[in-house]
Amino acid sequence: MAFHDIDEDLVGEIDGRVYNNTKGFYEKYFQGRSWSPTVGAIVHNANLANVCEIDYPNPPTRSAVLDWFPEFQSAFIPGGRPTYHTFHNLSSNGPDSYRKPDLFLTLAGATAGLGDDGKYIWEDVQVIGKVKQTANFKKYQKELLKFCELAREVFSCQPTRLFLHGFIIRGYIVELWVFDRSGPYSCEKFNIRNRPDRFIEVMVGYTMMTGEELGLNTFIKEDENGKYITVKEDDATESVRLYLGEVPISYRRAVVCRGTTCYRAKKQNAWRWEFIVKFSWRSDERPAEGQFLKLAAKRGVWGVPRLFSHQDLHSIADLRRGLQFGKPRTFIDSAENKDEAKNHNAEESFKNRILNCLVTYSPGREISAAGSTVELLEAFRDAIKAHMSLYRDGKILHRNISDTNIIITRPSREEDPKGMLIDLDQAAELGGKPIKAMYRPRHLQFMAIETLEGDRDYIFRHDLESFLYVFLRVIVDFSETINDSTGKTSVTRQWDRGTRSQMASTKFSLMDRERFRTLTNEFAMDYSRLKTLAEELRALLFPIRHNSCCIRTFSQYEHEKLYGDMIHAFDKAIDLENSWPTF
């Protein structure tokens, strides 16, 4: 079994590495804290001689431990503190409610974390716990993967969280865990029979941790008007409060990934949402997206968001400071990923990421929210124009064209874009060194064939090929909605399956003129006129030569030709739609 056998959203960009027996774990999280003397006094007053002093069940079956835990909590955890709940008398709601922790910690109060229906809510869960019958390490891998699913649910409902504490009790054996955006890691296991004092220290310690110690993002604060952040406009001297929307407009469900989470935001008493606030964990080898937006603005790029502010907040290296990691346990079953993991392990113990807060002026809505065919086509055309300006004027290559990175704008002037290209966090500045592809599992279905096939230099044509795949997928998705179909049989769904080389082969076979018609035949009647546009775009990128399809190559000096031809194709389709009679 591998991580991706459980749920592709569970792990995101994970390479399958998990660290056990991390040195310094207990000292970092449970010693030298402001509350450590209080916990020490509780342990001292317990006058522990052995495990019998806490009446730990013998035998420690799952049911017996869960029945015993409320008694333990009453005896050793002071009132008014955050509260543990057991799953015995609760059920969950929210996404994937069938995934349930056996024990979980919520904020203080007897009903904290509980909805009106008596179900707990993932937004209030602060620590997760799992109880197993025995320490059967033959099932270790499967149990750990299921535990990761619980962490995923917490991060899904608390997407700006920095990290999450958790614990697994297997009979008498206890293992403590922390999940962050670079992966899970655990302490050295201990035996409750030998260390009942440590068990008390840990369970009481969790209840006394501050929000920062629990892994909450304290950059986000709250007052009577709601949740807000305090930022400075680029080059300004005074700070301003920006109030966030109640729920994010987009977020990732995976744990180990960039954790990109976006909110609408506005100034206090403002009537409209003027800003977009984006939190994301980039690799420490990557420049901040805000730097690319500043560079784009300086160079007069058209069709990309306008920067308000950006700042780095945390790094995984800082969060893990003081810990020593040994050789990781891997859960990988593909030769391709094994090679990647070996290469990665040779360079560093874990992938360091940096949390950045980016604020831009609110540009519009997702391409999937197009209200008409003309609006859709204009947004695509202007997004391609934006890509051209970014490449030609900004000397920047986007490298991450997807259905979520093309948006429909609200232009106030005729010369303003009706579509915009966002999300420059995978961009690269043009220069003397070759540019490589960025492999992002979530967007592989839109990646160009040559970049899927191997270690190719990345050029502007690969992004334009991605525009074709996004356009086709969007039209097919709209067609499925009109035809009330599930889309499971669409040929575009084959782009999501298999290895990268298999995805590349599938895409290339579909670019054949006859096979391509099987794809455009999926267009609903409302979009039948777009078949001609789809074929024109295909022919520009995959011309037929000597009765066979080939990938058209371009040098970096020939970019104007391909950009111009693609934009012209969209202009013709827009003119056709505008000339079509309406009834």
TrEMBL record:
- Annotated PANTHER family: FUNK1 11 (PTHR38248:SF2), FUNK1 6 (PTHR38248)
UniProt xrefs under Gene3D superfamilies: Transferase(Phosphotransferase) domain 1 (1.10.510.10)
Domain of life of the organism in this record? Eukaryota
What's the protein name? Fungal-type protein kinase domain-containing protein
Q: Name one Pfam family in it.
A: Pkinase_fungal
User: Where in the numbering of this chain does the Fungal-type protein kinase domain appear?
Assistant: 102-474
Under the heading InterPro entries, the entry gives:
Kinase-like_dom_sf (IPR011009), Pkinase_fungal (IPR040976)
Organism this protein belongs to = Trichoglossum hirsutum
